[in-house]
Amino acid sequence: MTHPLVLFDFDGTLADSFHLFLDAWTHAAQRHGFRPVDTTDLDRLRRLGARDIVAEVGLPLWKLPAVVATMRAYVRERADEVKLFDGVPEVLHALKAGGARIGIVTSNARDTVERVLGDDCRPLIDHWGCGASLFGKAAKTRRVMKAAGAVADRTVSVGDELRDLEVAQSLGLAFVAVAWGYTAPDRFAGLAGVRLCAAPGELPALVFRP
Known about the structure:
The protein has helices at about 20-30, 40-45, 50-55, 65-75, 90-95, 110-120, 135-150, 160-170, 205-210, and strands spanning about 5-10, 15, 85, 100-105, 125-130, 155-160, 175-180, 195. The chain is α/β, with parallel strands linked by helices and about 210 residues long.
């Protein structure tokens, strides 16, 4: 592969959807019988991984598929409330201009992602890996890479969660952690192989860095 493949997470990385995620989580908690997120405890929760949060709220793993489906449907109904972070469109255009191919790997539904990207950014996406299960992003990432004919040392993963980092490490991918997402940025600071991005405008340089 001549040009790098850049695989983005969506929620919290490209799209400012945290407020809607919290609402969707509360809605799913009421429907499926687990504890909602304590919004007074967000600073601590942002330092935890997804598995820790799932265990803390008393959500059995066997319920996860139904919970994710409920949240996905809730977000779809309110997708117009979600906007891309400032600077993201410019970043996507800059990556394309630099020769990168762009993919999205997310638990969100593709139709929701396309609505948020809009007519300007939607055509910039070359590969889609939407609808991943909560802990199924590694398999979805492998499928996207295979479809793209991509190799690990020419693929960069960009995300905002510890599970995104875990996927990248398991597949041998370079990882860029964004500081504006769900996970507290200091959880990524100093980790081997992690490039921490403080603002969207820094992404192209970090992605194209050898």
